[in-house]
Amino acid sequence: MTSSHLEPAPPVPPPSRFDTRRYEIVDIAAGLFARHGYHATSLDDLCEATALKRGGLYHYIGSKEELLYLIHERFIEPLLAAAHEVESRGASPDATLRGLAHVLMGVIAEYNDQVTVFLHEWRSVVDKDSERAERVRQARRDFESVIERTLERGMADGSFTPRKPMLSVLAFLGMINYAYQWYRPDGDYSAAEVADVFCDIYLLGAGTRR
Q1: Superfamily assignment of 68-206 in CATH?
Q2: What's the Rg (C-alpha) of the chain?
Q3: For residue 7, what is the DSSP state?
Q4: Would you say the C-alpha torsion 46, 49, 53, 56 has a positive or negative sign?
Q5: What pTM does this model have?
Q6: What is the DSSP letter of 8?
Q7: Distant-in-sequence contacts of 149-158, Cβ < 8 A, 24+ apart
Q8: Which residue of 138, 148, 156, 158 sits 20 to 30 Å from the alpha carbon of 125, by its own alpha carbon?
Q9: Which of 111 and 185 is assigned the larger pLDDT?
Q10: What pLDDT shows up at residue 97?
């Protein structure tokens, strides 16, 4: 049986006024980068879109490159919080995997510009030798580990056919992550429907029950 709603993210404390304004700037930048490309968007474009002079812009961001990290943080923090909350319920492996599919698809729907920019530019971020780049890599590993632990639980209790867990993680992510290229909120399918259908397809391939 499929569910008809997305998994809600756990509540978070309200942001400060500074953080609220910076979120606005990050979201505006993400929209510009998603439409025009990161490299084709200039600081003047950002200033015009945010109605800030360069000094005001630099009050909230250290550099144009820093925006890529902030864009990643914008969606990865709620994604990880929601994923860990789903895992903590201790539901069956297939129910947990479905919950994770809803979480991931919900983030793709809500933060589509941010996800688009990061997936286009992620090599520019993760290939750098810096503490901030390492945090990006760690966040990605953290989410992958939640999925991997879920698959391993399913393999242990006989729900899933034994396969290489990391390859199965990449298959799960590849199927859902690609939705950023075509998903639209006003399209034919809701994010919840996409998550359920994709999870059905995935579970039919990974499950032992036919």
Answers
A1: Tetracycline Repressor, domain 2 (1.10.357.10)
A2: 18
A3: P
A4: negative
A5: 0.84
A6: P
A7: 149/87, 150/87, 150/93, 150/96, 150/97, 150/100, 151/93, 151/97, 151/206, 153/93, 153/96, 154/93, 154/94, 154/97, 154/206, 157/93, 158/208
A8: 148
A9: 111
A10: 96
